[in-house]
Design brief:
Elements lengths: L1 H11 L4 H4 L29 H32 L4 H31 E7 L4 H18 L8 E6 L6 E6 L6 E10 L5 E12 L3 E4 L4 E4 L2 E7 L5 H20 L5 E8 L8 E9 L18 H10 L4 E7 L6 H12 L3 E4 L8 H7 L11 E4 L2 H10 L12 H8 L8 E7 L6 H6 L1 H5 L3 E4 L5 H12 L8 H11 L13 H17 L3 E4 L12 E4 L4 H8 L2 H10 L5 E2 L6 E2 L1 H7 L4
Parallel strand pairs: 9-12, 11-14, 11-15, 12-13, 13-14
Antiparallel strand pairs: 1-8, 2-3, 4-5, 5-8, 6-7, 9-10, 16-17, 18-19
Length: 589
C-alpha cells in the first residue's frame, strides 16, 4: 500500500500534476456498472476526447481566417494605391478569390455541422418497417396541414387497408429528392412536455434495384434526419429521437379499427426461404352485426377469449379449437384476432418443405415484423394424422416433427408472447392423439370444441343475419317467423346444422328473392351516386313473401340434400359418416 500511496501522491501532489495527468469528468450515462468490472477489481470507464475535435476546428478556422484576412488586406492596399488598376483587379482576381474563399468556408461549415449536429440515417433496405413508419408519420402530418403544394407526388395502386379493394393513391414521397423541417414534441407521463427536437429531414429516393428471382423493382430510399445538438444534450436528443421512432413504429403497426391483417408464407423461388407477406384484410365481425358482419358467439369460446385477454400480452398462449367442418373455427380465429387487435399469421404444417429449423426461423423475432401476433395453424388434423402414420414421434422425413413443434411452442426459441391457435376436426383432440403425443397437448393451455348449432343459436343467427335485408319488423313478427322456421317437423330441428350450412341457405334464398322482385338494391350510407349499389333491401309490402321463402321447408330439404356432406372420422373406426347418417342413428346434438 505504501508504494501505491507514494506513487499517487507523486502524481497528484506535485506542481506538474496538471500537465502530466489528464483528469476527465465521467458522466453517469457512460459509467460502467460494477457488474461489468474486470477481474482483479479493475473497472473500465469511457473518457471522451472532445479536445481533438475542438483543436481541428480551431486549426481549420485559423487556416481559413488568416488567408482571408491577408487576401483582403492585399486587395484593399492595391485598391488604395493603384486606382487605375481597379477594373483589372476585379476582372482578373475577383472570381478566383471568391471561389477559393467560398470553398474554404463551405468546408468549415461542413466540419462544424458534423461536430454540432446529430445525424441519423434510415435506409429502406436495412429497416423497411421503421422506414415506412417514419415516412408515413411525416406524410400524414403534411397531408393534414395541407403542405403538399409544390410537392411532386407519385401515383401508386395498392390495397386499401379498410376495404381490401385496390385503390389509387398519391404517395407523398416521390422519385425526387426533397427536404423539409419538422418539430417533434414528446409528452411526458405527467402530461407535460418531455422534450422538443427541430429536425431537418432530407429524403433521397435512390436508384431502382431489381431484387429477387421474381424481378421486383425496389428503390434504395434513404431518409436523413439531423438536428443541432451539443456534447451536453447529445444523449438526451438521442433518447428523444429513439422514443419518437418507437412511437412511429407502434402507430404504424397498430391494426386498423374494424379489420384484421392476414399474413401468409410466400416464396419467390422453390429453392429460397419463404417469407411472411401481407395477403389481405378481413373485416372484424361482432355479435351486434347483421348479415355478413354478424358473428355467433358460442359459450364454449368464452374461456379462450378470457385467457387470451389476461395472459397473451406477457406470455405465449396456445389454444386448440376442434369441431366438424363449417362450424366457424377459422371465423373464430379472425374474431379473436380482432378482439386482441393482433395480425394473423397463417401457417400450414402439412408442407413437406417446412422443417423444424425453418419453422423456428419463421417464428423468430427477425422474421415476424410485429411485436405480438396470432399464429393460426389450420387443418391440424392433417399433421396429427401424418404423425400417427409415422408410428414414431419422429414423424415423416422432411416435415415438422412433434419435437420440433414443441420446441417452437415452449422452448428456447419460442415466442415470448402472443397467441397460437390450432384448428382441426374433432379427432384432433381424440384420446389416441393425447396418448401418442402428450408433450404437444401439455403445451396447449385450453381446448375448446365447437359443435353443431343449438336451437337458440339458429334462432339468433336467423334474426341477426336477416335483419340486414329487412327493416321495420317488430319483435312479435320476428318471433313468429323464427317459430315457423324452427318447426319440430322441419329439417332445421331434426339434423345437425353448421354455421356455414345455415348461411349458405340464407344467401341462396335471398338471391332467389332478388330474382323474383321481392326487393331492390340500394346504395350504402355515405356512398356516392357513381358507386354501384351493393345492399339488397326487401320491400315492406313483400316482407311476408320473403319470410315464407326463407321458411320453405321443401327448399330447405332440397338444399340440405345437395349440400356437400361433412365427413367425420370416428375415433375407433375407419368408416366415414356424414350428417344424414348421424341423424338416422340419433347421434345429432
Amino acid at each position: 500500500r505504501r508504494p501505491l500511496r507514494s506513487l499517487h501522491e507523486g502524481l497528484l501532489g506535485g506542481a506538474q500534476a496538471r500537465d502530466d495527468v489528464e483528469l476527465a469528468p465521467v458522466d453517469e450515462a457512460v459509467r460502467v456498472d460494477e457488474g461489468t468490472a474486470c477481474a482483479g477489481g479493475a473497472s473500465v470507464q469511457v473518457v471522451r476526447k472532445r479536445w481533438c475535435e475542438h483543436l481541428a476546428a480551431a486549426g481549420l478556422l485559423l487556416g481559413v481566417s488568416v488567408p482571408t484576412l491577408v487576401i483582403a488586406a492585399v486587395v484593399c492596399g492595391e485598391w488604395q494605391n493603384f486606382p487605375a488598376q481597379r477594373g483589372w483587379l476585379i476582372l482578373g482576381f475577383g472570381f478566383y478569390i471568391a471561389a477559393a474563399l467560398r470553398a474554404l468556408w463551405s468546408l468549415f461549415v461542413q466540419v462544424c455541422e458534423r461536430m454540432l449536429y446529430l445525424r441519423v440515417e434510415l435506409r429502406r433496405f436495412v429497416c423497411p418497417t421503421l422506414f415506412e413508419a417514419v415516412t408515413d408519420a411525416l406524410a400524414k402530418e403534411s397531408e393534414r396541414l395541407g403542405l403538399t403544394c409544390s410537392w411532386d407526388q407519385e401515383a401508386t395502386q395498392e390495397h386499401d387497408k379498410l376495404t381490401g379493394d385496390m385503390a389509387v393513391k398519391l404517395r407523398f414521397w416521390s422519385s425526387q429528392a426533397r427536404s423539409m423541417r419538422v418539430c417533434v414534441t414528446l409528452g411526458g407521463e405527467d402530461g407535460g412536455v418531455r422534450g422538443k427536437l427541430d429536425l431537418q429531414v432530407q429524403f433521397s429516393p435512390g436508384e431502382d434495384v431489381v431484387c429477387g428471382r421474381d424481378s421486383r423493382v425496389e428503390r434504395r430510399e434513404v431518409l436523413v434526419l439531423s438536428t443541432r445538438t451539443s456534447s451536453e444534450h447529445a444523449l438526451k436528443d438521442k433518447a428523444l429521437l429513439t422514443k419518437w421512432f418507437e412511437q412511429c413504429y407502434k402507430t404504424y403497426t397498430q391494426p386498423e379499427e374494424g379489420i384484421v391483417k392476414v399474413h401468409a408464407l410466400q416464396e419467390s423461388s422453390t429453392d429460397w426461404m419463404p417469407e411472411w407477406k401481407f395477403e389481405r384484410v378481413k373485416p372484424c365481425k361482432s355479435a351486434s352485426g347483421t348479415g355478413q358482419s354478424f358473428f355467433l358467439e358460442r359459450d364454449a369460446l368464452g374461456k379462450v377469449l378470457a385467457d387470451a385477454r389476461l395472459w397473451s400480452k406477457s406470455a405465449l398462449r396456445v389454444y386448440m379449437i376442434t369441431g366438424p367442418p363449417g362450424v366457424g373455427k377459422s371465423e373464430f380465429t379472425i374474431w379473436l384476432a380482432g378482439k386482441l387487435r393482433l395480425p394473423v399469421y397463417r401457417l400450414c404444417l402439412s408442407s413437406p418443405k417446412l422443417t423444424d429449423d425453418r419453422l423456428a426461423q419463421l417464428l423468430s423475432q427477425t422474421a415476424v415484423t410485429h411485436d405480438s401476433v396470432l399464429v393460426q395453424v389450420d387443418e391440424f388434423q392433417g399433421t396429427m394424422t401424418r404423425w400417427l402414420a409415422g408410428s414414431t414421434s419422429s414423424g415423416c422425413p422432411g416435415g415438422i416433427t412433434p419435437g420440433g413443434f414443441c420446441e417452437c411452442l415452449q422452448g428456447s426459441t419460442a415466442m415470448g408472447r402472443g397467441v397460437v391457435v390450432l384448428t382441426g376436426t374433432t379427432e384432433t383432440s381424440a384420446e389416441q392423439a393425447r396418448q401418442m403425443f402428450p408433450a404437444v397437448f401439455r403445451r396447449i393451455h385450453c381446448v375448446a370444441e365447437l359443435s353443431w348449432m343449438t336451437v337458440d343459436d339458429i334462432r339468433c343467427y336467423f334474426r341477426q343475419f336477416l335483419m340486414r335485408f329487412v327493416s321495420g319488423c317488430s319483435t312479435e313478427e320476428w318471433d313468429t317467423w323464427e317459430a315457423a322456421f324452427l318447426q319440430q317437423t322441419g329439417p332445421w330441428a331434426s339434423r345437425p346444422i353448421s354455421v356455414d350450412m345455415l348461411k349458405q341457405f340464407f344467401m341462396r334464398q335471398i338471391t332467389e328473392s332478388s330474382c323474383i322482385g321481392l326487393g331492390d338494391f340500394t346504395s350504402p350510407a355515405g356512398a356516392s351516386s357513381d358507386n354501384m349499389p351493393t345492399e339488397f333491401k326487401v320491400h315492406d309490402e313483400r316482407r311476408p313473401d320473403f319470410f315464407r321463402l326463407i321458411c320453405d321447408h321443401g327448399q330447405a330439404e332440397l338444399f340440405l340434400n345437395e349440400y356437400a356432406p361433412v365427413m367425420c372420422k370416428l375415433s375407433q373406426q375407419s368408416e366415414l359418416v356424414d350428417e344424414r347418417t348421424f341423424a338416422r342413428r340419433g347421434l345429432a346434438e
